[in-house]
Amino acid sequence: MVAAVPVVRVPRERRALVESVAASIGPVRGRRIVVVDGDDPVTGRRFADELAAVLGEQGAAVFRASMDGFRGRADGDERFPRSFADDAFRRSLVEPFLLGGSTAFVPAVVDAQRGTWIEPRWLTGPADAVLVLDGDALERDDLRELDAGTVTGVWVATADGRSAPGPASIVVRA
User: Fold this and answer.
1) What is the model's pTM?
2) Taking a C-beta distance cutoff of 8 angstroms, is the pair 6, 64 a contact?
3) Who contacts 61 (Cβ-Cβ below 8 Å, separation ≥6)?
């Protein structure tokens, strides 16, 4: 397991579900992005943490990021209070992560709580690695345009939640 993943204990009652999703993703060969989205951001984030933990337990090199690390008032401009830092998302995280090798990537550029830019924390990883990304990213064109074998979408639905807005490969009920 890579140190970029927080240590998370997966509750026994959810472990089988999380393990089945990890099995659906399959062995990590090359660079992969797993986007975990859902009708409730807290549930989606928790599921992404649990999925990253299980993938790490299974021996995959795992990195974790959140769309929250790419949104906010990072430039202090009140006109765009929840806008994504789109260029930073693509150029600092997605593109360099997928290049692999010694290319460094940044898991966040914004402190979501304060809405300010943060000092980048550059990470590198092995050629075979998975990035588990949570947030409302299934609808993003820049991820949809990538090779289908590179990005896997997981939609986490709560009991009375809405359906997946984008191309989710895996739908789970949490």
Assistant:
1) 0.83
2) yes
3) 1, 2, 28, 125, 126, 128, 129, 130
